[in-house]
């Protein structure tokens, strides 16, 4: 993979990585607030393994909200770790974010495809409802792929900075080019 030199054609990968980490923290905090402020009946939850009764019991106990909140707290922790890694120039501290980022991109792709295919094959009562399902499925697919592209670009910015820092660590402090000291 070719390394990126700039983030969004104007900032360095270091600055872009810091902005991405702060953005990750802000969005995670906003998601936690939204998850706990939205009424419970507006959140849909299916396990696909157990029956609908079990799903309703889990939803009544706020289990999906708790799981999502724990995941978002770990995201905040990893983003803080990324900020520290950029400031201290330590590649091994960036590695959790890099690994989590690519795993989340793959999971997001699977989720977008599953959701859009589910709407495409869902049975409709009439022709108008079928049209609405197809429009919704197409919108989810197009917007989801667009979101994945942006996410993978941001991951590539962080990964490029990770590779730069790792190479710098391998060269050693005194073997760097004079203009990089």
Mean pLDDT reading: 85
Unreliable parts:
none
Output the strand order for the largest sheet. Answer: 1-2
Number of strands: 2
Structure commentary:
With 181 residues, the chain is mainly alpha-helical. It has one domain. Helices cover 75% and strands 2% of the residues. Strands 1-2 form a two-stranded antiparallel ribbon. The radius of gyration is 21 Å and the shape is elongated. The mean pLDDT is 85.
Summarize the structure.
This protein is 75% helix and 2% strand.
List keywords for this structure.
181 residues, two-stranded antiparallel ribbon, 5 helices, 2 strands, 75% helix, mainly alpha, 2% strand
Secondary structure: elements and pairs:
Blueprint: E1 6-7, E2 11-12, H1 13-37, H2 52-60, H3 63-88, H4 91-121, H5 127-171
Antiparallel strand pairs: 1-2
């Amino acid at each position: 993979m070719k390394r990126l030199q700039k983030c969004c054609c104007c900032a360095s990968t270091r600055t872009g990585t810091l902005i991405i980490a702060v953005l990750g923290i802000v969005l995670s905090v906003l998601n936690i607030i939204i998850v706990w402020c939205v009424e419970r009946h507006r959140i849909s939850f299916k396990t696909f393994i157990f029956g609908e009764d079990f799903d309703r019991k889990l939803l009544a106990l706020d289990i999906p909200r708790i799981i999502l909140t724990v995941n978002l707290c770990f995201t905040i922790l990893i983003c803080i770790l990324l900020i520290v890694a950029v400031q201290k120039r330590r590649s091994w501290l960036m590695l959790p974010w890099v690994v989590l980022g690519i795993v989340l991109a793959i999971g997001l792709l699977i989720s977008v495809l599953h959701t859009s295919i589910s709407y495409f094959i869902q049975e409709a009562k009439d022709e108008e409802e079928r049209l609405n399902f197809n429009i919704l499925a197409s919108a989810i697919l197009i917007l989801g792929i667009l979101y994945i592209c942006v996410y993978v670009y941001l991951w590539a910015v962080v990964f490029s900075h990770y590779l730069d820092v790792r190479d710098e660590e391998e060269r050693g402090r005194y073997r760097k080019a004079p203009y990089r000291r």
